[in-house]
Structure to design on (460 residues):
């Protein structure tokens, strides 16, 4: 076993140090991987030494993996991860703490509480009056928001279900919002027709006038609007919805306001970027993913709510088998969707401790600056940027693309041949553009310049 631990440490260190030298895109077929697995492992009838399994698996991950931690991966929000977070996940795997009940893991529960209280304060919530938990990811956090809002607005739903309601509950979100809500309303028993997609304005932000009109018309039809989702950094273009205006509509209409800040929530830590998040502190609940801009491994979502009592009412239960509660503590199984749960928060705690708030701010501000440099460099070369956001994602097109001389697929292929990964995106249901996001804290000026050069050659 000792040799395996040594190998593991070297593999992690080598991957962290040598990622720039590796191809981002794997050259492998489905059939090749499946044949290898069948040939080597069959039906698991024979035991294989751990060292041999380790070496085979690391080779597969090294060679048959899209390397999203590469500094020239400009794709979705899959960041490079900080060393402290890798150490943390290894410790969690070794000790395997169970966080359902406080008494089973006092240290883990208190570390998470300490970390979440700090971040709640960055949002602008009062840690003592609010509730917060780690989740498997943004989808679970968003579903927690919908469930708590539903229970808060319609208390009878907790015991009787949505069938008891005389009117259909509706929730509102922009056309650019995350599609996880389609699954969420299905899982919550609301049905996908309960989703009301609000048009966006010319800046791709939720249109407040359209929102007001839709809510009013739906009420007149006999439906029951209860929730608006404000997106803080859309997946496609990094758009921040008008938080202050959305909160005002929710207060006027007596609706819940949930902020999906899965990516953009990290802007709270930057004094410069936080100015774009005015109104976030007035929302009722927030989703924030640490495994995006806070650069820790998958998965580490977070759910924050200003209404502690509503969270307890939503998730509370009584059992004859769980340990008795410890005074002045909260058992997480009573305030979250999960029951048994991994110690998710350690990787964020250790990274915060190693970097400090100043280190995190520096990394976030640097990535934002790289986004501005990419935008400026593209504009200087005659490209057209089609999104406006302070977050480091740039959506862009080119006259040769718009007139059909070159296709988006051709540009993507040409850029990827240079060991640089970008994607395409469809915005506002019609505009197809190229998309590049600064997802790695290792991405620097040289990487941005290399991307621009590759794009220029692709359309030349």
């Amino acid at each position: 076993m000792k040799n395996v631990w040594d190998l593991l440490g070297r593999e992690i260190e080598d991957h962290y140090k040598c990622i720039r030298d590796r191809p981002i895109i794997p050259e492998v077929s489905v059939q090749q991987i499946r044949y290898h697995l069948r040939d080597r492992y069959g039906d698991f009838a024979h035991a294989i030494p751990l060292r041999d399994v380790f070496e085979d698996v690391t080779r597969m991950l090294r060679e048959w993996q899209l390397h999203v931690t590469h500094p020239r991966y400009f794709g979705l929000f899959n960041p490079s991860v900080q060393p402290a977070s890798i150490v943390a996940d290894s410790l969690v795997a070794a000790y395997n703490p169970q966080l359902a009940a406080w008494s089973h893991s006092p240290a883990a529960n208190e570390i998470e509480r300490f970390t979440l209280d700090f971040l709640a304060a960055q949002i602008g919530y009062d840690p003592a009056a609010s509730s917060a938990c780690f989740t498997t990811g943004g989808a679970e956090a968003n579903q927690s928001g919908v469930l708590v809002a539903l229970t808060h607005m319609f208390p009878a739903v907790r015991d009787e279900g949505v069938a008891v309601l005389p009117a259909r509950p509706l929730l509102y979100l922009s056309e650019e919002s995350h599609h996880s809500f389609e699954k969420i309303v299905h899982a919550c028993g609301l049905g996908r027709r309960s989703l009301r997609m609000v048009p966006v304005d010319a800046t791709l932000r939720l249109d407040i006038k359209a929102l007001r009109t839709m809510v009013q018309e739906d009420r007149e039809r006999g439906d029951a609007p209860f929730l608006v989702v404000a997106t803080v950094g859309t997946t496609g273009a990094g758009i921040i919805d008008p938080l202050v205006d959305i909160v005002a509509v929710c207060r006027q209409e007596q609706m819940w306001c949930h902020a999906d800040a899965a990516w953009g929530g990290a802007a709270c830590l930057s004094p410069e970027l936080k100015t774009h998040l005015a109104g976030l502190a007035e929302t009722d609940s927030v989703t924030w993913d640490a495994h995006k801009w806070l650069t820790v491994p998958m998965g580490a979502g977070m759910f924050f709510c200003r209404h502690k009592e509503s969270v307890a009412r939503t998730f509370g239960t009584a059992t004859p088998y769980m340990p008795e509660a410890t005074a002045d503590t909260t058992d997480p199984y009573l305030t979250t969707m999960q029951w048994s749960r991994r110690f998710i928060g350690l990787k964020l705690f250790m990274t915060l401790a190693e970097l400090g708030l100043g280190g995190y701010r520096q990394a976030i501000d640097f990535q934002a600056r790289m986004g501005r440099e990419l935008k400026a460099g593209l504009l200087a070369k005659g490209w057209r940027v089609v999104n406006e956001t302070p977050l480091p994602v740039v959506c862009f097109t080119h006259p040769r693309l718009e007139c059909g001389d070159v296709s988006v697929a051709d540009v993507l292929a040409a850029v990827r041949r240079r060991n640089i990964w970008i994607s395409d995106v469809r915005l506002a249901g019609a505009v197809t553009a190229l998309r590049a996001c600064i997802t790695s804290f290792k991405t620097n000026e040289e990487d941005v310049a290399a991307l621009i050069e590759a794009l220029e050659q692709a359309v030349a």
Remarks:
- The mean pLDDT is 95.
- The two ends are 55 Å apart (CA to CA).
